[in-house]
Amino acid sequence: MKVTIIKTGINGEGIGYIDRVPVFVPGVLVGELVDITVVEKQKRFMHAKVNRILKKSPLRVQPKCKIQHKCGGCPMMIATYEGQLQAKRDLLKQSLIKYAHVNPRLIQKIIPCTKTLSYRNQCKLPCAMVDGRLTTGMYLPNSNYFCEIYHCQIHAPGLEEMRKQVLEVLNRYHYMAYDYHQKQGIRSLIIRGFQNRYQLCIVSGEHPLLQDCVDEIMRIPHLVSLWQSYHTIKKTQEMFGNKMIHLGGERLLEFSFDSLTLRISPRSFFQLHSEQAIRLYQTIASMVPQHNDLIVEAYSGIGAISLFVKDKAKEVIGIESIKDAVVNANENAKLNGVEHVSFLCADAADKLTYLSKKRSIDTLIVDPPRSGLNEEMLYCILKSKIKHIVYVSCNPATLGKNLFYLQEKYQVVKVQPIDMFPNTPLVETVVMLSYKK
């Protein structure tokens, strides 16, 4: 069966049409004519695999990674970087027009990366046994197929070296991958690094690591922080367990970020592309008006955005539901000598409702998870009469759906996409909105 690929899907797959029914085909680009076999047929869509590419796109390139077609982590690596940027902008444009009827002229040219490989500062990889050895890799979406990662092209070189050295030590002590029945073994490795300083969290069953093994891991050059997390819940997307144990070195990983000094715990979120994160935060700051009395940031994490915009307000309040991140954020404010920025541990909608009733909020910054703003948060914003909103999104679909509701009382002024994740279909977007008078 032949099909021409018309557009790119949200997971980086190509989309063609058979009798007006969309067919999702991984590993192909817009404009390509492909011979396919349908592997799943539903009433409203189909999934297919490629047999042959009959007409190649001029944007197609040979991927730099030998297991790109197996791993599934970098589906856009088959396209030139210019082709990747165009696909991401098209995905954003389609979502904002479809869900929110946003004027496409408001969507700016995407801000590109200068580094498209070796950029990622953190890995969260599940473990498995391959040929009798503990290793890390990726499970393909919706499958039990484990793809071992020998060398990842998008990890920063130091991160890759740290991953390999940790695995060498764990294998010397004959640690096995996690067994769901016995609730024993190593479940995943989570490693984060900045400026050649690394923090490791070993996620495992409820068993302490041998002290000799801990001591040897701590002797790995540039490893400065070691944690273990007990995690025995079977069906969950959460990488960490409820119990966190500090095994050695510094409790928090300290690093420089632009003019700030920040400290972060293993469970706290930070952008994965350090260089591009500075451009993202500069973009956010550029959309925040000058001379605010009060700026509120929802989903504030370790406080980097709030600290980045500190000179634009008399007071900045961050709201975050993850306790570890709030502790980090308040310590970061103190570490940088900033007294007018503070952080609260609370549900974003609940605390914003309270603050908006008590005080006048000039600017609200929101950086929600991929699921976007929930109904309670949208209702709160629409009732609050906040003057300006800066919405930071990592999901064009939920962004479009949220903007549809926000446009009841807010006008979209500017949409700025930023490429944070080269070789993937993901795109970060910063939207500036103003209250309709």
Structural commentary:
- The chain has helices spanning 68-71, 81-100, 157-172, 211-218, 274-287, 304-308, 323-335, 348-358, 375-384, 396-406; strands at 2-4, 7-8, 14-18, 21-25, 33-41, 46-55, 122-130, 133-139, 146-148, 186-194, 197-204, 223-230, 243-249, 253-257, 260-264, 292-298, 313-320, 341-345, 363-366, 388-393, 410-418, 428-435.
- The radius of gyration is 23 Å and the shape is globular.
- α2 (81-100) packs parallel to α10 (396-406) and α8 packs parallel to α9 (375-384).
- The strands form four sheets. The chain has a seven-stranded mixed sheet, with helices on one face. It has a seven-stranded mixed sheet with strand order 18-17-16-19-20-22-21, with helices on both faces. A six-stranded mixed sheet has the order 1-5-6-4-3-2.
- The chain is built from ten helices and 22 strands.
- The chain is 26% helix and 32% strand.
- With 437 residues, it is of the alpha/beta class.
Short description:
The chain is of the alpha/beta class. The chain has helices at 68-71, 81-100, 157-172, 211-218, 274-287, 304-308, 323-335, 348-358, 375-384, 396-406; strands spanning 2-4, 7-8, 14-18, 21-25, 33-41, 46-55, 122-130, 133-139, 146-148, 186-194, 197-204, 223-230, 243-249, 253-257, 260-264, 292-298, 313-320, 341-345, 363-366, 388-393, 410-418, 428-435.
- Give the oligomeric state of the chains in this entry, treating copies of one chain as homo and distinct chains as hetero: single chain
Pairing-aware structural class of the strands and helices?
alpha/beta
Question: In what range is the share of β-strand residues?
Answer: 25-35%
Round the Cα radius of gyration to an integer and report it: 23 Å
Q: Give the biggest sheet.
A: 7 strands, mixed
